Amino acid sequence: MTEDDLAGLLPVVARYLRAMGVVGRPRSWSLRAHFIGRFRRGPDQPWLPLNAWQYNSGVEVARLFRMRLLVARVLPMWGWDTYRAGAGRMMGKALGLVTVADGSGPEFDIGELTTWLNDAVLLAPGMLLHPRTAWEAAGDHSFRVAVTDAGHTVSAEVFLDEAGRPRDFRSEDRWADLPGGPVRAPWSTPVAGWTVVDGRPQMTGGAAVWHLPDGEYRYAEMALQNLDLDVSP
């Protein structure tokens, strides 16, 4: 990426990409990450220890996310979120054997693509430098970004800090898994902070929050342990 590549972009988008260290580097095509933190399955449910690993591709738009929870700090529960070939799926198994959740369909296709977009914005912005991405100004310190894949288009608003790095990501293209069934609701991922690794800004961690009619439901808090870019699956 060079400054000439940024010349045709909106000023706020170019500022974000500069702040994220894309200039002078190859355009990222994949990411591999490891998180630790905590997760809860409902607003009134206890927090469970979490370990999560993921691999995202920007060549074929794909996201493979695996999460391990410990119930009562003893019983392992595994969750898989996947998006590949335009199809999203969310599955959970106790002990890796007994299925406790399994969802697929249009809501999951859209929701999982939105999560891929979130990962790209926060972890590997070079993956957004592609004709499938569209940008729109939303103010001096925010922009809207949309991505299209396999006939699906999702979008979000990204809010920047004073340095031009994301401080929050908000979208209405996801469905919350509630007792009464999936409900489309605003979803955000506030960023905990930033550090610099190998000369490139890297988020320290963040959270995932549903904004429901009866209040916010913060269901995940994760710290980034490791991030590798441009690695084979």
CATH architecture: Clam
| Global mean pLDDT | 95
**CATH domain fold name:** outer membrane lipoprotein receptor (LolB), chain A
| Total number of helices | 3
Order of helices and strands: HHEEEEEEHEEEEEEEEEE
Low-confidence stretches: none
Structural class given helices, strands, pairing? mainly beta
Kindly state the number of beta strands.
16
Cα-atom Rg, whole angstroms?
17 Å
Biggest β-sheet: count, sense, barrel? 14 strands, antiparallel
Cα-to-Cα separation, first versus last residue: 24 Å
Judging from the principal axes of the Cα atoms, what is the shape?
Answer: globular
Overall domain count: 1
Quick one: CATH class? Mainly Beta
**Helical proportion, percent range:** 10-25%
State which percent range the strand residues make up. over 45%
Descriptive account of the structure:
With about 230 residues, this protein is mainly beta. It has a single domain, classed as outer membrane lipoprotein receptor (LolB), chain A. About 15% of the residues lie in helices and about 55% in strands. It has three helices and 16 strands. The strands form two sheets. Strands 1, 2, 3, 4, 5, 6, 7, 8, 9, 10, 13, 14, 15 and 16 form a 14-stranded antiparallel beta sheet that branches. A two-stranded antiparallel sheet has the order 11-12. Strand 5 and strand 6 form a beta hairpin. The longest helix has 18 residues, at about 105-125. The protein is globular. The protein starts with a helix and ends with a strand.
Key structural traits:
233 residues; mainly beta; outer membrane lipoprotein receptor (LolB), chain A; 14-stranded antiparallel sheet; two-stranded antiparallel sheet; 3 helices; globular; DUF6544; DUF6544 family protein
